Amino acid sequence: MTVGKPNVLIIVADDLGFTDLGSFGAEIQTPNLDQLAESGLKFTSFHTASACSPTRSMLLSGTDNHLAGLGQMAEYARNFPEKFQGKPGYEGYLNYKVAALPEILSPEYYTLISGKWHLGLHEPYWPDKRGFEQSFTLLPGAGNHYKFDTSEKEFMPYLYQENGRRLDPEKELPDDFYSSSYFTDKFLSFLEDEQKRKGRPFFGLLTYTAPHWPLQAPEETIKKYKGVYDSGPLALRKQRLEKAADLGIITADTIPHLVETKDEKVWDELSAEEKTYSARKMETYAAMVDELDKNVGRVIEILKAKGELENTVIMFMSDNGAEGMLLEALPFGGTSFADKIGDKYNNELDNIGKGDSFVYYGDLWAQAATAPRHMYKMWATEGGINCPLIFHYPKLTREWAGGDTIEAFTTVMDILPTVLDITGVPHPGKYFKGREVYGVRGTSWSPFLQRRSKTIHDDNTVTGWELFGQRAIRKGFYKALYVPPPLGTGEWELYDLAQDLGETKNLSDVLPEVLKDLINHWSIYSAETGLIEVNEYPKGTKYHPQIIEDKH
Ligand SMILES: *[C@@H]1O[C@H](CO)[C@@H](O)[C@H](O)[C@H]1NC(C)=O
């Protein structure tokens, strides 16, 4: 293989929590990703949106989700048709006002995607229309990990496409289909298609649907974790916090946010049976992460065998915080999430993890993975938006030691400019393929990673977030946060993330000038992105958590 421009491989996990990898604090066995982290870099202040499709739109466009077409997740926007319907930036697919990364890189690069898309259900918005020369994707945001009742249309529809052709899943997905291994098979078959590749460097996106619910994994892998979670989620949280501190992922003196749960009973109050049932869900979750890691290992082995590993920039990230099922608290189309699961699945203890089971692990296990941060997916608190990222390209990062942590603030919008910078492909600017497109809001990491620059984003960089009515705006280490009732107070809060990653001390009274400045920046951000503010949750939203005091 000739060594020309580097290949780029971006691997995205779905709802993976911050400490779910061994190298970030987990007990889950992830040797392949740990090896990448130990010979690469671990980013600890990498930020995404608080939900999956908005993050993916930012990844592929380098700009804000409210510009790229995912101003809201469609499932939520439906509750406020008068506000969102037909509004620019709220198309519900990656819109044509942005130049997508694969569109920019192809045909100089061989562009391929395998896994979840979630950036447009309908054919004009499929990946083959956005620059991917090879694509195999699940179109919606989630799917059964095994092949089970492919006739299902509403709740978990089997919508797959391959290279612009809709698949008949019953006939075209193999009976032993398992998401992580099949997405990897497809990815590798594209990668090894030398006729299509024609000697070009590749840009690959491998977007696993694990460990997103429904929690499903092979029985023998679930068995590996039997007993590991018998002390419950609060004990796991403590163990993860300690290991993360030992690994330098967080500082030992970080004050974690208190745990909030919708559950009526916490671990100590559960019966032995209830404990076993809850632990089995977490064992299954761990098995999904374990399987994901094994499949990443397969890709790395192939790159090694082809002599291409050294010449491949690899990034591994999660798309948002761990999933604590806030969705469950929001009414969707008049029925609760539990009603939708209905009688179709068999959720008996021994069946959990199989293709005809449908479980999720709940807010306590999720907070074991997001701690010390506050809350999880769908929140604008750090638990929803601060995700793990591994960067592996030793050629570029020689000035760092393998396994170093990068604490600098970064966002998913930085990935597009970083990739263009490293590959030496220019952004098209304002016009692209006959249309007007937005510029990039992110910044390349390359100068910093080569130690030619001391910073990535300076202290005056302002970054905003908005989804599900929750708002956040950050400048330097100060972050203002707004959470409408009933989930929050509907008043701006202020945090200093340099001292308080857990967002435990509301400084809005103490530093009113700082808050005022951030609220001004919020208005600018809101105007620049054309985002539509919501001050309330859908009618009928209930949230009465109990707060668990930390006894440790
Ligand atoms: C933060 O402090 C402000 C000012 O005292 C108050 O209005 C707001 O409710 C506080 N928010 C939280 C979540 O404590």
UniProtKB/TrEMBL annotation:
Biological process annotations from GO: organophosphate metabolic process; phosphate-containing compound metabolic process
InterPro entries reported in the protein's UniProt record: Alkaline_phosphatase_core_sf, Sulfatase, Sulfatase_N
A GO molecular-function descriptor: arylsulfatase activity
Entry-linked Pfam families: Sulfatase
Highest taxon of source: Eukaryota
Coiled-coil region list: none
Annotated CDD domains: PAS_like (cd16025)
Domain Sulfatase N-terminal as annotated: residue spans: 6-425
Family per record: Belongs to the sulfatase family.
Name used for this protein in its record: LADA_0B10924g1_1
Species in which this protein is naturally found: Lachancea dasiensis
